[in-house]
Input
Amino acid sequence: MTHPVLSIRDLSVEIPTRHGVVRPVDGVSYDIAAGEILGVVGESGAGKSMAGNAVIGLLTPPAHISTGEIWLNGQRIDQLTGDAMRRLRGKEIGMVFQDPLTSLNPLLRIGDQLTETMLTHLPISRSEAEKRAVAALDEVGIPGAAERVNSYPHEFSGGMRQRVVIALALCAEPSLIIADEPTTALDVSVQAQIIALLRRLCRDRGTAVMLITHDMGVIAEATDRVAVMYAGRLAELGPVRDVLTHPQHPYTHGLMASTPLASQGKSRLHQIPGAMPRLDAVPEGCAFHPRCPYATDKCRQPPVPRVTDGQAACWYPLVDEKVI
Amino acid sequence: MLAYIIRRIGQSALVLLIVGLVAFSMFRFVGDPIDNMLGQERTAEDIDRLRAQLGLDQPFVVQYFKFLEGAVQGNFGVSYRQGRPVAEILLERAPATLELAAVSGILAILFGIALGVFTAIRRDGVLANFIMSASLIGVSLPTFLIGILLIYLFSVELGWLPSFGRGETVDLGGWSTGFLTESGLKALILPSITLGLYQMTLIMRLVRSEMLEVLRQDYIRFARARGLRDRAVNFRHALKNTMVPVITVIGLQLGAIIAFAIITETVFQWPGVGLLFINAIQFVDIPVMAAYLMLISVMFVGINLLVDILYFFIDPRLRADRSGGH
Output
């Protein structure tokens, strides 16, 4: 059996604060196989991005990995430091950020940004890197790539810039891409194009993708499996079809029920009552219990329910409860 | 871009005219030059005759236009005190000030940027914090006090460096330079530190805060996420973006160095245009004052113009006439 590209085991991230330690990521485990797209979904502050930052080694101190392991292609990487981790970034793990308007350096030509990334990681000559830069832009669908390599970021529209960002993330051919809300800042009409592009490129190359988003539409459209996060913990993990149509966790169910559908017409949208707890006030037991219609005393006490093989992190998983 | 430069030059000329006008209207309050020029034994006729001869009986607007008329031909009149053409005196004094300002400016820019980058990258380091605290001294101590302290330490106590003057100078086709003699170079050290210290600390603190701001930007995170080396992230990506606002301030500070030279030149008895100006004020030597103020404003305006043009080379977003884009 082959290794998954990325394997996260019981990962926790802690931030020491004046009011005690908060844990924005708490005991999260999942794998991503080559060519697979894992959607990580959840509300703001659920720890989706923090987990991605932990994988690529870009946690901002004082945030740090407190427990758990991260394995990339069979190599343990959570303990790598400094230069060893830097070598992996870009080379083995690419990252796409949310806002393409701010993630490109405004003062450097995009061709230079591409070649510098390739020259940092690949044993190729400058002229070879320049050739590959044109090819990379061509591949992400930038028309007239041979001329546009000499353009500056401000000469591109938002969607085009996100294509450039994807070309940059992929140019050293990493085995894993972490896409942190890659379409949130884009026009709706462009979102689908970018998602389709990301999907096509990663399928072709066998790149594993961690697609972080809060957009259920993107999840349904692009991902193979989905991890639902709530208050830093994994609530549910499974193939996208199962999770979307037969959610086991009451939170996932609520999330699905509150996604607007055109077929519903103008009827009132479902809401989950209350709000996600602040990280410094996560309740005992299941973090979702104050908002859960099915909560019992068991849910209000430790231990915390965890995701197990094929089962959501819930003592009373919903059985065959269809959404809508 | 050419149209832009022409428009800016037009604006610059307007600024110069207004500066001249304001300066001229102020001269009437400095005192009456006639008092100084004629001794105690003077008659009312002497005063009137000299006043008419110098054109001081005319309204200041008329005086101003006469001054302008001469100035565009390079004629700034004759110094009341020295009886020589002002242009000649200024040219004689300019090398001293320009050399002092150049050395101070280069010191301030080099050390200011280097220390600013260092304190930004090693934000929490012990040495960086020490430098930041020490820089408060540079910002808060007045220039003349720094000069006097340096003289006390290096000239009086240690006796290493001269306390005043330019040392020996060599005449290179009308330009007297202190760069070519040992005593000239030695004499430059204390005044240029005195003059440049404030600008250096200012540039350093500005570079630091701008750089910290830039280091928080998404494109720096993205550069790190692409695994670029720290050196490339800090210098290629961050420093270049830091320089856009910093250049404006550096430009203005270069003008300020020449203007502040008045104080340093007085402390060190440096024979430059600043000292000339101080002496001219005491004597109400209007032609010298007018020419000096025009010279300083030409320099400020010129540096600003240069800074604006520099933007074009640093920031591609300003090159509006480039083709392409959506």
